[in-house]
Amino acid sequence: MTAAPPAPSPASTRPGRHRVLWLSTIAFTLMFAVWLMFGILGNPIREEFGLSEVQLSWIVAAAALNGSLWRLPTGMIADRVGGRVVLTALLVATAVPTFLVSRADSYATLLVLAFLIGFAGNGFSAGISWNSAWQPRESQGFALGLFGAGNVGASVTKFIGPPLITGTAGATYFGIIDGGWRLVPVVYAVLLLVMAAVVWFGTPRHDLKPGTGAPLDQQLAPLRQMRVWRFSLYYVAVFGAYVALAAWLPLYYMDNFDVSLQTAALLTATYIFPASLLRPFGGMVADRFGARRAMYWTFGVMLVTTGILMMPNGHITVVHPDGTQTDHLAYELGLVPFVLLVFVLGCAMGVGKAAVFKHIPEYFPDNVGPVGGLVGMLGGLGGFVLPLLFAYTKEWSGFPSSTFVVLFVLTVVCALWMHWTVVHMLHRESPELAHHLDHPTPEEAPA
């Protein structure tokens, strides 16, 4: 006779919940590093294969696309079979194409492998579902923020990539592994397999599966609510834009400020760190003051920073009646103020990412997997679309700062939709709702 698994204990006293949180966060950090490794590998790949900026943007976009497509089913499956199984499977599945990148010999091969490596990005949905099941509701904002801080993995390659590429260029290891940029994916493939073993053997065997037995239509029912799609657009602005910019900034720095790959990587890290490490702080802010207030602050700061960053360097030339010309209102944003503004932009995104996901267990406590999966999927798809928009708008306009025009317009749309929703809800219900914006009530109709 088989012993039944132990009955679930209150979330605040479940043994193993801290191991779930920390090991899933470390695993997600590694997977995020792999997912965005082309941000640093892109320049040596561009030089070796003779790629254009648009071609390189498709490699970055391909990884972002597959890292988003499966977030909804991944979250639902994690709810049904447990995050432990799903996260381990994703770690193993990502290791294979990651290793094969080191053997790539054509642009087409790189595109296919970049797409397959995108499976790493779907680890986010598995981890959100897993931690939502294990962590107590009163601290879910912080817990999900801490897990989401695994986004800092985007900076890992920025630190280890350039010295590893430079220090091993031209070398060969074990007769089959080339040095230079090709060594980086080999190292990551080994780490992914090691991490898969750590997650599998280091977390509780009896996993929590809140979606077990729930009909598919019941799991998908919340997706018919407009607020889910609104949250998804917010996440495009704070996460999709983060993914796109983290991959795009190294090239932006090298092309516009004439710095080395290593310097560009370090400068990009000053954006990635606050955009990732402030996510737990953003969760605490959302826990304390409410997610909508945090989103107002986030969008306000993003509008100011992107509004300045989108201004092109140059001046206004006035042609006088006698044919002479004079230049006025010269404007140029130097490297230091540019880095500072991007740093502040990263801080806002770090808070905003946590605030968006604070909404989900508040409004959909029994459907975190599918709702979080959809929000994560559409946010990640922003990481697919935005690098292409960056490349094509630059090609069309000739202005490198058009990158930030795209982000400014996206933020304006999100901020206006959110504010219209809040004002509409207050006018429809009652002024007293102004003090309860972040806590759904039974009387509140879907907004």
Describe this structure in words.
It is found in: Cell membrane. One of its GO terms (cellular component) is plasma membrane. Keywords: Membrane, Nitrate assimilation, Transmembrane, Transmembrane helix. The chain has a single domain, classed as Up-down Bundle (Growth Hormone, Chain: A). It has a two-stranded antiparallel sheet with strand order 1-2. The chain has a two-stranded antiparallel sheet with strand order 3-4. A hairpin with a 3-residue loop joins strand 1 (172-173) and strand 2 (177-178). It has helices at 17-35, 38-49, 53-69, 71-81, 83-101, 107-117, 123-134, 140-148, 156-168, 183-202, 216-220, 226-257, 261-277, 279-289, 291-309, 335-363, 368-397, 402-428; strands at 172-173, 177-178, 314-319, 325-331. The chain is built from 18 helices and 4 strands.
**Biggest sheet overview:** 2 strands, antiparallel
Give the % helix. Answer: over 70%
How is the largest sheet built, in terms of strand order? 1-2
Task: Please compute the radius of gyration using only Cα atoms.
Answer: 23 Å
Poorly predicted runs of 5 or more residues? 1-12, 443-447
Give the overall silhouette.
Answer: globular
Beta-strand portion reads under 5%
The CATH superfamily label reads: MFS general substrate transporter like domains
Backbone structural class: mainly alpha
What's the pLDDT, averaged over the residues?
83
Question: How do the helices and strands line up, and which of them pair or pack?
Answer:
Elements: H1 17-35, H2 38-49, H3 53-69, H4 71-81, H5 83-101, H6 107-117, H7 123-134, H8 140-148, H9 156-168, E1 172-173, E2 177-178, H10 183-202, H11 216-220, H12 226-257, H13 261-277, H14 279-289, H15 291-309, E3 314-319, E4 325-331, H16 335-363, H17 368-397, H18 402-428
